[in-house]
Every structure is written in C-alpha cells, then in structure tokens.
Write a structure and sequence with these properties.
Layout: H1 2-31, E1 34-36, E2 41-50, E3 53-62, E4 82-85, H2 87-95, E5 106-110, E6 122-127, E7 137-142, H3 154-180, H4 184-196, H5 201-237, H6 253-280, H7 282-286, H8 302-317, H9 328-345, H10 347-361, H11 365-376, H12 379-409, E8 415-421, H13 427-434, E9 439-447, E10 461-464, H14 467-473, E11 474-478, E12 486-489, E13 504-508, E14 514-518, E15 523-528, E16 539-541, E17 556-562, H15 565-578, E18 585-586, H16 591-629, H17 631-639, H18 644-681, H19 691-710
Parallel strand pairs: 3-6, 4-5, 10-16, 12-15
Antiparallel strand pairs: 1-7, 2-3, 2-7, 4-6, 8-17, 8-18, 9-10, 9-17, 11-15, 12-16, 13-14
Helix pairs in contact: 1-3, 1-5, 1-6, 1-16, 3-6, 3-12, 3-16, 4-5, 4-6, 5-6, 8-9, 8-18, 9-12, 9-18, 10-11, 10-18, 11-18, 12-16, 12-18, 12-19, 18-19
C-alpha cells in the first residue's frame, strides 16, 4: 500500500504542478513586457523565428538624462553598443558565430532567471542610439497584467486540463483505490476474526482505518519526495518545446495538501467501506457467504453519455454541422466524463453477466472454472482492468485533441513553404538550403521592375522554377513546358489585368542587368495552395533564361517541404543554422503557434506516459493481489487433482475476459467521444479513421502482456496453511 501510494502521489504531484509551471512562465514574461510611457528611453521590439524557436529582441536607446525603468533580471539597461542576453542565447552565439549579426554590440551581461520565461528562452536587450531606432516610442515601464504571448493559449489550456484529467487523474483515482483495497479478502477475514473474539464494531473499524491511513500517508510522503527529485532532474533536461526552472515545478501548499491529505483520506474511505461487512457480519466473512451481485445502476450512465456523443456523430453523418454554440462546450466534456464513469461502473455487471452466459455453455473445465469464479466475484475484474481501459479511452480523446490543435494552429495543406529574401542569402547558403533534409523543392518569386512610383504603371509578379518545382508547390499543374516562358492561370484566383498577352515587363537581376519578359500566349494551368508564394504570380520564368549564379534581384527564395510538424521544426532549425540572420517567413503559420503545439504535444505525451505507468501498476498490483487472495482456492483445486496447466488457463482467462470487454467498449466509446469532439470543434476532420488501427494494436498488446503476466501468478505448491478449516 505504501509503495503504491508513493507511485500514485508522485504522478498526482506531476499533473498538479503542470499548471503552476505554465503560470510561472507567463508571470515572468508578463513582468518584462515593455509599456509605452514618457521616460527618456525609447525602444523597439523585434520577434523573429530563429529556427523553430522565437527570438525576442528589445532595442533601447537613451534619449536624455533622468531615471530609467529596468526590467526584471538585469540591473540596468545596456548602453549603445552593448547587449544583455539570455544564457541560452550565449550558447547559440558560441555554437554559431554567424548569428552574431542578430545581436549587434558587445555582450555586457546575461539576464537572470527572474527576467526569462524559461531556461531555453532566446531574449536580448540591445543598446542603440536614438537615430538608429526609427519609429521607436518612449518607454514608460516594464510589466503587464498578463503576458501577450502566453506559452499556452487560455482556451487551449482548458482543453489540456480536461484531457490530462481524463488520461491521468481518472486512472490515478482508480489506482489509489486499488492500493487502498489491497489484500481486501485476507484483511476482511482478519478483521472478522478480531470481531469474533470480542472487539467492538467501532474498534474494528479503527484498526482497519489506522493501518490504511498510516500506510497511505507514508506512501504519500515518499511520493512527494520522489517527485521533488524527479523535478530537479527533468527541469535541467526539459521536454521538447518546454523547459522550466526547478523552482517552477516544486509543489505549492495546495498541491502538498492534496497529495498528503487526499491519498490517506481516500484510503480511509475505501477502508471503511471494505471493513464494514467484516465488522457487521463476521460469520459471513469467515464462512465466505454468497456475495451480492454487483449493482447495475452504474451502467445506466452510458445512456446519457453515449446519447450525446452518438447524437453529434449522427448529425455529422447526416451532413449537418453542429459545431459552434456555447452548449457544445458543456455537453461534450460532460458526456465524455459520464461515458468514462459508465465504462468503469458498468464493467463489473457486464462481465458477470457475460461470464454466466459463457459458463452455462462451456465444455472446457478451465473455461467453466474461470467463468464461475468471475461470475461470483466480478469486482476483482473491475480492479484489474479499469486502469488500462481508461487509458485506451483517454488515448482516443488525446488523438482528437491533437488533430483539432493541428487544424487550428497551422495550415491544413499537405505542404509547408518557407520564404526568405534573396538579398539576405549568399549563393553558398542558397545551395545549402536546397540540400536540407526535408526540403522537396525550391523556387524564386519576384515583382517586375517599375521605373517610377509617381505614376501607376503596370507590374506583374513572376516565379522562376522548373515544371517539377511548380508541381511540388501546387495542387495541380497542367500544360507546363520546360525552358519556355508561360503565362500562369489559376481558376481559383482573379485574372491579373496587367498581364495582357504581348505586354513586356522587366525584372532586375542580381548582376545589375535586366531581364525582359513578354507575356506569351501559351499558359500553364495551376491550382496553388492557399496561402502560397506561388498563388498570384502571372508569369512562369524558366531558370535556363538566367546565367549561372544570377538570380532575380529583390526576389524571395522559397522552399517547400511536407507539413508534418516534425519536418517543419527540422527545416526551420536547419535554416537557422545555415542562415541565422535571414528573416524567415513560414508561410501560413505563426512561429508562436508552432511552439505552442510542440508544448501541448509534450504535455500530452507526459500525460500518456503517466497514464500508462498508472494503468500498468494498477494491473500488476491487482493481479498479484488476486493471486494472493486465491491461494486457498488454488490449494484446494490442486488437492482435488487440478493440473498446473488447468490452473494457469483459469487465471489467464479470468484476467483476459474483463480486459476484452473493457478494451472493446473503450475503443468504441473513445472513438465516438473523439469524433464528437472533432465534429463540434468545427475543423475539416470529423472522423479519425487513421487512429483506429493504432488503438486496436495497443489493445492487442495490452491483452498479450496481461495474459503473459498472469501465468507466473499461479503456483501449484500445496501449503496446508492456505486450506480453510471453517
């Protein structure tokens, strides 16, 4: 009980401190937000992507004498020609000297942890002169009521809390219940013996409560201490997209109270419920009277839960869109929780009913023994299977959350573009960028040259690419001919009136010359992605028209890759390493959204790992506990001549049956819950067909592992102490 409580409380502390870590990060970033005012300091902010990370630079200049505001983490603002940067940025500059152009001036110091969001923050205060900061405004103070760039959006944070509650907290409560119920049958017999030799009902309950609460409290203390050690290590290692300082992850007073009081309280409640029968009816316990069948009322919770999520799925199948409206924000989470509760409470009566049906038709002795045992004691199946069942149910919901966040956080097209100014790249850098892993194609996009801006002269936009490159950037491309200038037609866009057939336009070249292009009759029909640098240009210029090493002046160098988040991060990191001072525009996405999606993925992955640990631990504890409780029955069967193989088959079937029932129901209800969440979210994806095979594979893996783990739990050794002498 103590070790089980320690594991459960450590997981509970980890879940409860996640919001504290995010809150601490946002509080520090809010405290450093510059606010306009009337001081003698002017400032300008720049927030650019450095690889897949945001780089935040604040340029400050002293425009006169007088007091100056100071942000947290530094003692004073840098002078002109100086810079104060974060420790992580110091590491970046040391590893990549080319990035020194991002931080002009001498590094005069580093920012303390009070002025950083996390240990991986790329932040800099750079001193300049007022003449250098064109368009700057006067600085008033540092600090805002809330950060404008929260690590996780508040609406998304609510979804994250709900998902973590489903995949961690529900299995965790079940696990702590299992630990508090450990060796319930043997304990009930001991308590009944105390009651029969004269101990009062109240004293018998006190004995049980005493040992339960003490064991749970010792475990809670061990769990908190273990979590503190894990936090110190993980804070230094971090998660993908999420780093924190050790102090952020230390549990606060409320978390300590919940951990140190909640686990013993749950153990006390469970102990009181399990000991009441032994205290009030000790004869029935000692003589193993017939048990009452499990209550069927918990199964009724599935009716409203499945009714709501099934209704949304039916509306979507009928072609109607039920997304939007405030009612969905309450109905869907409520239906998911009710369905999960019904799944747990309905497992015992459904398993008992199914076992009774199978036992009446079974021709096999091991199967008949297993089914009769499951029929008379279905509560044990609840303890064995609940954690893993809830884990599969939560995994379905997690898949839906990730799909929805992918849709709202980035473009849904299968490709991702990266646009960089040609003027900020050397020829060697362009060659290196095209060879980046994950980059499928590249091209150039530029506006034609106009002699004067005083008159509204016609101008067109053109792209330099081969037919293969055009195909990589577009949904479809028909009628393309290499080494020939073509007119671009896109039926999804308005016709460019300036691109009349026979009109001539000039494009500036990087060698100082000009390229004359006449709009031809021949055209290529393209359906470009939206948004895209290839959506809108009217001319396709073959690269063969340009001399080697010559490119269009003032053009954009465009790369394309697939839209997998891992590929996007890899390409952005590669761009940051090759061209650290170039401004990168990841077309269609915001770098903050990409960072937020990475953080959420990391937190959900942590939740799934914790849920898996809890589910497996609950299974192991329950199976071992049942093996301990059944020693007397196994001994009796062995004396009657049952072979070791028969006893092992009985044990495996007793474990596998509730898991088959529970996991099958979890896959169906979880997929419906996931679909209802996607339907009400308003995204393009309503049915996650790709996630079903993964759930089936996980369920089969759980069944196989459970069956193998159950085999060594049965020993045929005959111990006379385990034979009942009632």
């Amino acid at each position: 009980m103590a070790l089980g409580s320690a594991l459960g409380v450590a997981c509970l502390a980890a879940v409860l401190t996640i919001p504290s870590i995010l809150t601490a990060h946002d509080a520090r970033t809010a405290a450093r937000e510059p606010q306009p005012g009337s001081s003698n300091v002017v400032y300008r902010e720049f927030r650019d992507p450095y690889g897949s990370q945001p780089l935040h630079r604040v340029f400050v200049a002293h425009a006169g004498s007088g007091p100056t505001p100071v942000p947290p983490g530094i003692d004073k603002l840098p002078k002109a020609g100086e810079a104060i940067i974060s420790p992580k940025l110091v590491e970046v500059l040391a590893a990549n000297p080319q990035a020194a152009g991002l931080i002009p001036g001498r590094v005069a110091g580093t920012i303390a942890s009070e002025g950083l969001g996390d240990s991986d923050d790329l932040y800099a205060y750079i001193g300049a002169t007022p003449d250098e900061l064109i368009g700057a405004e006067h600085l008033g103070s540092f600090g805002a009521s809330r950060s404008w760039r929260q690590i996780v959006d508040p609406s998304t944070l609510d979804i994250l809390r709900f998902t973590l509650g489903c995949i961690v907290l529900l299995p965790l409560v079940t696990f702590l219940f299992v630990c508090a119920r450990l060796s319930g049958e043997s304990r009930a017999r001991r308590l009944a013996a105390l009651r029969l030799v004269g101990l009062s009902v109240k004293d018998t309950m006190r004995v049980n409560a005493g040992e339960s609460v003490v064991a749970a409290f010792v475990g809670a203390v061990l769990g908190v201490v273990g979590y503190l050690g894990i936090n110190e290590v993980m804070a230094r290692v971090g998660l993908p997209g999420l780093h924190w300082f050790p102090a952020d992850g230390r549990p606060n007073g409320l978390t300590l109270v919940v951990c140190l009081v909640g686990s013993p309280s749950l153990a006390w409640v469970v102990g009181q419920l399990s000991a009441r029968r032994a205290a009030l009816s000790p004869i029935n316990v000692r003589r193993t009277a017939e048990r009452r069948p499990p209550s069927k009322y918990g199964t009724l919770l599935l009716i409203p839960g499945l009714g709501v999520i099934g209704g949304y799925c039916l509306l979507s199948a009928m072609g109607r869109d039920p997304s939007g409206g405030s009612a969905n924000a309450v109905l869907v989470p409520g239906a998911v929780l009710v369905t999960g509760a019904g799944l747990v409470l309905g497992l015992a009566p459904i398993t008992a009913w199914l076992a009774r049906r199978i036992a009446t038709t079974a021709k096999s002795l091991p199967l008949a023994l297993a089914m009769r045992r499951t029929e008379v004691e279905p509560g044990s199946s609840l303890r064995v299977a609940t954690g893993l069942v809830l884990l599969v149910f939560g995994a379905s919901l997690t898949q839906g959350v990730l799909i929805e966040l992918n849709q709202v956080s980035r473009r849904t097209d299968p490709v991702q573009e990266y646009s960089l100014p040609v003027a900020e790249l050397s020829a060697q850098q362009r060659t290196q960028l095209t060879a980046l892993r994950g980059v499928d194609a590249h091209g150039f996009a530029a506006q034609s040259w106009v002699r004067t801006l005083e008159v509204d002269l016609p101008s067109v936009r053109g792209v330099v690419a081969t037919c293969a490159q055009v195909a990589a950037f577009s949904r479809t491309a028909r009628g393309c001919i290499d080494n020939k200038v073509l007119r671009i037609k896109d039926p999804t866009l308005l016709v460019d009136k300036d691109a009349r057939i026979g009109s001539s336009f000039q494009f500036l070249l990087s060698n100082g010359g000009k390229l004359d292009i006449t709009v031809p009759q021949d055209a290529v029909t393209v359906r470009a992605y939206q948004p895209s640098e290839f959506a809108g240009p009217s001319l396709l210029i073959p690269p063969s028209l340009l001399a080697e090493g010559v490119v269009l002046s003032d053009a954009r160098f465009v790369l394309v890759s697939d839209a997998d988040p891992a590929t996007i991060r890899s390409v952005l990191d590669g761009i940051g390493a090759i061209a650290p001072t170039a401004s990168v525009d990841p077309v269609g996405i915001v770098i903050d959204s990409l960072a937020q999606l990475t953080v959420i993925r990391s937190l959900l992955a942590v939740g799934m790992v914790l849920g898996l640990v809890i589910g497996v631990a609950a299974f192991v504890v329950s199976v071992a506990d049942r093996a301990m409780e059944r020693r007397g029955q196994v001994t009796a069967l062995a004396l009657l001549g049952a072979r070791a193989g028969t006893l092992r088959v009985v044990q495996v079937v007793q474990v596998v049956l509730p898991l088959v029932v529970g996991l099958g129901a979890a896959i169906v209800t979880g997929w419906l819950a996931e679909s209802s969440y996607l339907i009400t979210g308003g995204g393009a994806v309503h049915w996650d067909w790709e996630g079903l095979p993964l759930l089936f594979v996980c369920a089969l893996g759980v069944l196989l592992a459970a069956a193998l783990a159950s085999v060594p739990m049965v020993r045929r050794h005959i111990d006379p102490e385990h034979i009942r002498r009632d």
